């Protein structure tokens, strides 16, 4: 799910811009049926790479927030 900006143009608390961009990119990739049909393996590798980067980013954000909350 891609969160919406609030009335001031900000993302919700706890949502980081880079994380939001990855989610937006993955959502666009999921909707690109032409690329899936044309070369599924290439699409799948790109989709997997984007998800891997998002997962690593989320882990780093969680670690950073955990360290800063101590």
Task: Provide a short characterization of the protein structure.
This protein is an all-alpha fold.
Describe this structure in words.
The chain is an all-alpha fold and 70 residues long. The protein is 73% helix and 0% strand. It is built from 3 helices and no strands. α1 runs antiparallel to α3 (40-69). The chain is flat, with a radius of gyration of 15 Å. The protein starts with 16 loop residues before the first helix and ends with a helix.
Give the N-terminus to C-terminus distance in angstroms: 30 Å
What is the total number of structural domains? Answer: 1
Compute the CA-based radius of gyration: 15 Å
- Oligomeric state: single chain
Low-pLDDT stretches: none
Q: How confident overall, as mean pLDDT?
A: 86
> Strand-and-helix sequence, N→C?
HHH
Which class best fits the helix and strand makeup?
Answer: mainly alpha
Helix amount: over 70%
Strand content: under 5%
Per DSSP, the total helix count is 3
Instruction: Kindly state the number of beta strands.
Output: 0
Largest beta sheet, briefly? Answer: none
- What is the 3D form? flat
State the main characteristics.
single chain, 70 residues, mainly alpha, 73% helix
Give the topology, please.
Elements: H1 17-31, H2 33-38, H3 40-69
